[in-house]
Amino acid sequence: LPEGSYTLVAKAPNHGTRTQTVQLSSGETRNVDLHLTRETKTGMSDWENPESWLRDGNWYVRRGGNLALFKVTPAAGRIDFTAQLRKGRRLQWVVGSTDGRNYILYQMDKKFFYRSEVRNGVVNELLKAPLKQELKGYATIRIRISTTSVVHETYDGKSWIPLDSWTEVTHNFAAGKFGFLVPSGDEVAISNFAFYP
Questions:
Q1: What is the predicted pLDDT for the residue at 15?
Q2: Most CB within 10 Å of its CB: which of 41, 44, 92, 121?
Q3: Which residues contact 71 (CB under 8 A, 6 or more apart)?
Q4: Residues 6+ apart with CB under 8 A from 120
Q5: Alpha carbon 77 to chain centroid distance?
Q6: 7-44 pLDDT, tens per residue?
């Protein structure tokens, strides 16, 4: 290769992508470690009460029931899903749920993204931000959860758009469970749900 800067991207099925930039001098030989981390995907069978999600084509539908929790903990990793609010005012999901009265609540309606902390059943709204794109029937969401941060993005059909990034060292977001909040009378459908620890 001629002298210059090169960006190498390594991809493999069921593995994370790795990117590394290398500067080469003329005639130089360089070894590059592009070791990929295996991603283990889990899906709908790993929900508490998976039978409460009814299959409708490519969608899994939940009607009411309040908290529908994913049973895998710790929840550190990446969660991807497409969700459709079929009945109700807001699409709602939770992170770091330790019980039915303590969790971080995320919500979306057609115009806004919300983040609230629910502590002992008391809701404290922390963020209300306008969406950069209007919610049109469904949303594809990516969530990255670590012990001290939760990052949300939405897919617009071409690229991932940041929704919210929250870092808080006094929380352990990964210790609790992820799930959807589906109040009585609401109906939520999800597809392509995947958790990558």
A1: 63
A2: 92
A3: 46, 47, 48, 177
A4: 101, 102
A5: 9
A6: 888 877 666 677 778 888 888 888 888 776 655 566 68
At residue 130, the pLDDT reads 93
Q: What are phi and psi of 13, to 5 degrees?
A: -55, 140
pLDDT block averages, 10 residues each, the chain of length 197: 83 70 84 70 81 94 94 90 95 95 95 95 95 82 96 92 92 93 96 92
3-state secondary structure of 44: helix
Cα dihedral 153, 147, 101, 51 in deg (nearest 10) = 70
| 36 closest CA partner among 8, 14, 69, 7 | 14
**What b-and-e string marks burial along 111-129, b requiring 16 or more CB atoms within 10 Å of the CB?**
eebbbbbbeeeeeeeeeee
CA distance to 15, 21, 130, per residue, from 145 (Å): 18, 26, 22
98 vs 119: CA distance, rounded Å: 10
* Nearest-angstrom CA–CA distance, 107 and 179: 12
- Cα atoms in the Cβ-side hemisphere of radius 13 Å centred on 35: 2
Q: Is the pTM of this model over 0.70?
A: yes
Please identify which residue in the block is written with the tokens 């539908």. 61
